[in-house]
Amino acid sequence: MDTLIFEIGLAVALVSMVGLLSAKLRFSVIPFYILVGMVVGPHAPHFGIIDLRFIESATFIDFMGRLGVLFLLFYLGLEFSIGRLIKSGKSIVVGGSFYVVINFLSGLLLGWMMGFPFKETMVICGIMTSSSTAIVAKVLVDLKRTANPETEIIMGMIMFDDLFIAFHISLLSGIVLSGATSWTGVLLTCLTALVFILLFIIVGRKVMPWVDKALDIRSSELFLLLVIASLFLVSGLSESLHVAEAIGALLIGLVLAESVHAKRIEQLVVPFRDLFGAIFFFSFGLSIDPTTLGGAVTVAVVGVLLTIIGNIVSGFFAGRASGISTKSSANIGFTLVSRGEFSIIMANIGKEGDLQPVLQSFAVLYVLILAVLGPLLTKESKRIYGLFQKATSWVRTRE
């Protein structure tokens, strides 16, 4: 009996149920998607047609997860646009630089402390440097902090971080996925990636008038087909040049964000982003055997502590450099603690490159812990800052 369609339906039903649960709890949905994927999978029971192992559909679910990455990065490009990145100015460069440098150094420190090889350490640096745009944006809206003085700095830092992650994914593609074994080969691959990215952006902006004309179609069906074709072709071309397919998706998104049809593209793409994005996290959970997570507990806990400390420090420096209060600076650090989609993408690069399996387990625990702690720390940032002030006042009084 062919159960492929039934298994796909079962997977979507499970994702939907945990999505409803997270909505009722008013919490980030990402850890729920990963957890339900971990609960089922090859080790799960099966009862006749109800087969929670997802054996027959595993390949298809994995492919849908890859589509999820493409649509997530494509939508991110549509949201930012090249013009917006250029205009964001000081908040991106100053705050983002503090954030990226401190968190990247935390990744290097963790890799050194745990004795990981160079390639694994580079993946860990990417995992620890990439904040979750989705979780941060949702938390800011839910807590009604979009008008706060620090919010513009937070968004600028996220945008800078996303740009860095795009570069880092390209770098990892050269180091981990290209098969290059010498520094010369790695540098050549990375240079090829950089040239491709720059040329694509430059040419993309030049041909935008012709793109706008080509997309001037009344039929939603044909319009969507052209957009999806562009997304897949550019992503596939990127992969053939040893640039991660996700970067190709980001690039075509950045270019099309300059189009007069950008809003129409966003509206049509959102359902695909939500559906395949959810399956992406679910498929990542499916690839994890919960019994193997124990070996990554120490690495994950140390990584979480380094991330929280690093974010508080980077938030303080970024806030002070922008002239806002210490209290608002503390909000920056706590808000940016959450990790999610990009950390998982980094871990998948390590998996594709046949690096140590502990990277997958580390990414799961690290993301789960910070996806839960991040919103909590943000919500209680005022109380935490108040307790810190009382503690420092008590110390000064004792002295």
TrEMBL record:
UniProt keyword annotation of Transmembrane present: yes
Membrane-spanning ranges: 6-23, 30-48, 60-80, 92-115, 121-141, 153-177, 183-203, 215-234, 269-288, 294-318, 355-377
Pfam families per record: Na_H_Exchanger
Residues annotated as domain Cation/H+ exchanger transmembrane: 13-378
This protein's record includes keyword Membrane: yes
Compartment annotation: Membrane
Keywords: Membrane, Transmembrane, Transmembrane helix, Transport
InterPro entries in the record: Cation/H_exchanger_TM, Na+/solute_symporter_sf
Membrane topology classification: Multi-pass membrane protein
Highest taxon in the source lineage: Bacteria
Entry's family note: Belongs to the monovalent cation:proton antiporter 2 (CPA2) transporter (TC 2.A.37) family.
Record-given protein name: Cation:proton antiporter
Organism per entry: Kroppenstedtia sanguinis
